[in-house]
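Same chain as my last thread, 64 residues:
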Amino acid sequence: MKLKTAQLHIEQIWGTANSVWVVIRYRGKAIAGFDGHKADLRELVANAHRVANNLGYKVNSELL
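reply #2:
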């Protein structure tokens, strides 16, 4: 099975200074996402990667 390449996005959640939204998109459509505290960013990214991989996507990320 060929994996589809998805993109990792980290976005600020409006209205909260220390919260972030980690979302993985494939052709603009969100396929996995987690919100949480900036301090837990690596864990949030790892969780999003894991979910995307389980769904059959390869994540293209220059952040890690």
